[in-house]
Amino acid sequence: MTDVVQDKKVLNFIYIVSAVIPVAVGLLMIMPSEWKVNLGMTENASVSSLPLIHAVLNGLTFVFLLLALFAIKNKKIAIHRTFMIIALVLSSIFLISYVIYHTTHPSAKFLGEGSIRYVYFFILISHIILSIPVIPLALLSIWRGWTNDIEKHKKLTKYSFPIWLYVSLTGVLVYIFMQPYY
Known about the structure:
Structural class: mainly alpha
Low-confidence stretches: none
Helix content: over 70%
């Protein structure tokens, strides 16, 4: 398979995934509670601790993104790649776990009052909005880095990297705000 054909196939995959994931997650958020599978209520397989795991995965993603930045600033390309792949794997595990949790549990409501409510919703809304473009930006950035298309990689990472950092950090903050309501 030629590089052009392979590149086109990978790009098509990235575009499809980037469209399907936000739609699927959006549908999970509006899915009536009575449609959700009762997986979280069995004695042997409780998924009620998944929000904490989500926060840990987001926090680890944030750390590995920073480690990757430090590595590339020090021209440690192999270490940078490793840390970026780890960040991608952690984000992917988060996404799978997030889907599992939200197909089995009703969405929790934030009950905070006063100014903290405005802070929470600002963080939540910006997190949700930026989580949509981070999917194609991160995947395209990783693909361009993996294929050594460094010029395109650098152009993309000017946007993808800070957005991915923000989304992973605010994922932890959303958990901290919501923790009393799970």
